[in-house]
Amino acid sequence: MEKKWYLLIPIFCSWLLLGVVGSRAEEEFDDDWGTEAVNRLKANLEIHGFISQGYMKSSANDYLGDSDDGTFENRELGLNFLSYLSPELRVGLQLMSYDLGYEGNNKVQIDWAYLDYMWKTWLGVRIGRTKIPLGLYGESRDFEGTRVFSLMPQSMYLASFRDSAVASNGISTYGNCGLAAVGDLDYT
Known about the structure:
Layout: H1 9-23, H2 33-43, E1 45-53, E2 74-84, E3 89-100, E4 109-120, E5 123-131, H3 162-165, E6 167-178, E7 184-187
Antiparallel strand pairs: 1-2, 2-3, 3-4, 4-5, 5-6, 6-7
């Protein structure tokens, strides 16, 4: 079954419009409310990106491709956008492309895309495609600075399962509950 991430676009547009209309509930409704939504997105827009290029050469283990003679098929590229529509509401999207031997082949895909509403510090809701917090690196495996090795441990983060094990579509809750002298409890 082909995954159709573009079906999330109407959800994002609806939430964007609800954020603008909700903020103007006490004001007179006029014709330029769509312009206000665009201005609010642009005013708070953050754009970030990353690129990583590696080289593999292995004489005894052709890992995910032919690495006997060496290969540059070890790269990741990402571009993400994040905008705060209000202090509690943000929308974000990351486009990702990777090539690791036979996997990825530089195909651009939506890595994550969500609408995030944090009602209180102890309760927030994300709707869309969100990262799966699997193991130590589930949510941060795309950030090279969070790990000291070039390849993820394949016993836990198998490259051939990357597309299905990195993120999921749906609704998730998260938060941080203070436990007094014991510390805090983060949940997802």
